[in-house]
Amino acid sequence: MMGAMVNSVLPVESLIVVDLQSAFVSGEGAVPAAERLVERTTDLIARARKDGALIVHLQNDGADGAEDEPHTPGWELHHPIEAGPAEVVIRKPKDDGFDGTSLGVLLADAGVRALAVCGVMSEMCVQATARTALARGYRVVLPHDAHATQDIPAAPGISEGIPAATVSRVAEWALGSGAEVIAHAADVTFTAPPARPVDPTRD
Question: Does residue 97 sit within a domain?
Answer without folding.
Answer: yes
